[in-house]
Amino acid sequence: MALSPSILSISALPSISTSDSLHSGVHLRWTNHPLLGFPNGPVEISRAALDKDKCPRLPLHISELGGGTSAPLPYSIPSGQVVWCRPMVGSAGTLATQLNVAGIRPEQVVGGFLGLKGFVPVQYGAALDPTEIWVTAAGANAIRITGPGRILSASAISLDCARKLKFQRLDMVGPPFDGLQGYQSAPVDDPEGEAERRVREGAPVNTSLVDAMHATSLSPGPNNDDREWDRVLRFVDGALKDRYAKMLDTPGSPLSHRQPEALSRGSSEEVATLNTPSYALLMAATRDASVARWAGYSVVDLVNPDLLESGHGGVYRIRASFDPARVFREANETAAILAALELHRIRSHDLNISNPGLVLEAFVAVIPPAQPPLPAPGSMMTQHVRWLSASPALRRLIDVEFTPPVGAVAYAWFRQVGSPFEPMNANRDPTDYRVLDPGSRRADSSDRWVLTDLNGPPIALNYGVAAMDAFGRWSPWTTKTADPGPLVRPPPPVLEAQYLVAPVSPVDSLPRAGSVQITIPVPGELPPGCPYINRVHIRLESLSGALISSLVEPIGSRDSISVLIPGPALARSEIREVRVAAQFEAGGLLSSDGVARVTAADSRPPIGLTIEPSLRWTTRADARDSSRTVLKWGTRHEHQGYRVYVATSRTLIDHFTSLGASGEAALASLSSPTAAMRDVVAAIAPHTNNLPRSAFELVTSRMIDADPSGASYELVIPGRSRLLYVVRISAVGPNNVDEDWSGPPGLFFVAAPPTIKIQAPELVVRGETHPMPSAHVIATLRRGQRAVAWRLFRTTRPDLAVADSMSEVMTEAINLPPSEAPPEVPAETAEDFKAPLAMLEYHDTGPTKYGPDAGLRPWRSYIYRAQIQGEPEPGGPPGVWSDLSIPVSTVVIPEAHPPVAIVSATRSAIGVEVGWRCELPARRTAVGDFRFRILVRQEGNSVAEESGVVSALDLFAHIFKEDSDLATLPRLEVFVETIDPVGRRTLSEPAIVEAES
What we know:
11% of the residues lie in helices and 39% in strands.
């Protein structure tokens, strides 16, 4: 029986054998709505025979889903479907319901209340034969039937007819207290004795499963009234009895107990009010049937065996008085409470007590034979909800859900790991009287109970549940295996890792492997559901995931572990980033990876550069007197960068001085101001492997990156420096370590080229005519100077010839290859140059590779200047060019004589006219003009003297006037003589002039 939401409810259970664990008789049990509180006085129990004439049968109607259109009978119910039988007798409900069925068992039929607080099952139906079921739920207004099966017919006895029956009082039942102010005791001399009698008369035949929890077996053993009374005394003695008496002794006592409670908050204390639901806790204790008998809520009718055997049945009535003020004080929905009270209200004088108050009554029908046994809980299932603790003692919250049998009010349950079982609701605290609390109901289901194990082990185990009804009957056990809890993986490790380098002696180039030291703290607190961590798996991997090494380390009782794991094999000075991954193992589960990155670096210095030593020259000094050169070298893949160190021939003197005799040759070259740079390099070369670091200076503030395409450094030195610079390129490995200084060095030898210019040459230019017009240029060098190249410039413009540089008007240049040495001046010409001196000569015929069409023109003056280039240092840049020489000019005179004139002569009225033609190279030359002279010869006589000189600017004609002597001669021979600027003469053929006849 579930406690009915009705205002006042009574249930009856007829028992005629020991098969249901109860003594023979009609076991009665009543309860009231919590808002009514305790009755004001004893409860009256009456009995009447069920008169079928006064209680006619009324038809019932079938409806699906709790309402809607009625279905006709007979009615077939599919499996799992639920239908309701509802009487059309008003709101009073039924006293008893008879169903003729096919294939429907009594446990499929439940009577209950629909409307006040939803459908709440009350009592099993009783099967008189396989086809007839009686439901005796007092006041039930609906009968729920679950398929499969078939309803043939249905009828009910109305609750209204019960009030027409003739009842006989059986007993006045109340709690075992006397002399209380708020309660009128039962009219008996010994209330406590009456309570003991009720407990003994209703004692179960079998031991309560609650008590069986202390035994070694779950099978209940035989029980007797002495043992049951002792159990009840142990249960009610103390807090329960005192609290019960206190609430009854206080008129109108509240249903909750409020008392101040001190609370500590840090250094201060506060007072809070604790509200304890006193009445609800006391009523929870009466779920135990024997405790209910002790408290006056249950009794056994042992004086009417005929009722059980006649087959006609009977009706029991209960009347009780309550404080009306309490109902209105505690209820929030007054109208609903008043409507429910009207179903049970009777006149106050009908209950024979002095202070009746609000008197209510309720009825229940008893139809023989006895009720069927209480079935075992059904549909049992277990569910792992969550973990409550971590290792070493894993505990979890497990829900055990089941469907309690109809009428169950409490339960007993156990769990079993292996062979022994462990009780789950044993009364371990003598003051705890709430041991039989019902299970919590699921929010989405009114007929499912959920039990919660707050200390479940992590392994698989069995749970067993048995239910108890309001009369003290226990169902068989239902068991279910709970699966092992899903273990929670341990948290990932937190790693601390560092690389320990391998020993570096001796230094070689073979791969070497250091070690990685790993420290992993073991977490002191683990997440709930995580087993004890027993091992750690460690992997050392490359960043691409390739495994380098691994190990598995047991933890034991250590708070942290520190291990060494072999590192990667590293080339000389190699640096590599690797990953350490670790996983905790707990209960066979591995955590996710805890990861740390470690930089593994080989501590050996890198292998240096291989540079072929040679002398390199800088550029000429710029305007700031700085010379520079860019040093380039190829890089190696194992180099991170380079540092540049510079020493000079001056800083190396102390080192070679300290070498004594072995350094004398190098010291002499370093100390000589006139020593050639190539000789200084040759003197230092045998000692390059031993040059001290103290003689060098680091000149790079930042490391030069090792670019795959190569590296470079621009060295800047004073332009006029005559020192040799020794540049060492020191490789830096990825581990940021410089190469070993004592190893083979990568060196550059650098010097600035000399900047002293040699003297300009002296020029002698001679014009020549053979075989063509040309100029013979001779450049004479100063004594002791040698030239490797020279340049010759010519121009016809005197204004440009006197400039500081003729580069803008250079018309010709002659480059001699550096290997062509100038010849010595021949002995026969030595007097001309007051030497022996070095001499360069060139025959300028006009066209050159710089001006193929620039031929020399006769009778023109040409001005020449020249430069010579000194010899360079060995391996250095070209030598410096001298200044331009002093200008020297010459005139190009052709070899041929002047051209012959073609002469013509005629007589005219004015005299003898002479004309001639002559192809001259120029009308005016740099050395003068061409001139003409006319000669006349008479026939047979010699040539007469010239008649005059005609310049080239005059007309090529002459007139001997009529009055002249020559004009009168009869016959003349006229000649024209051409005279060039240098005086060379050419006579023309004669022209004959005849006298007129």
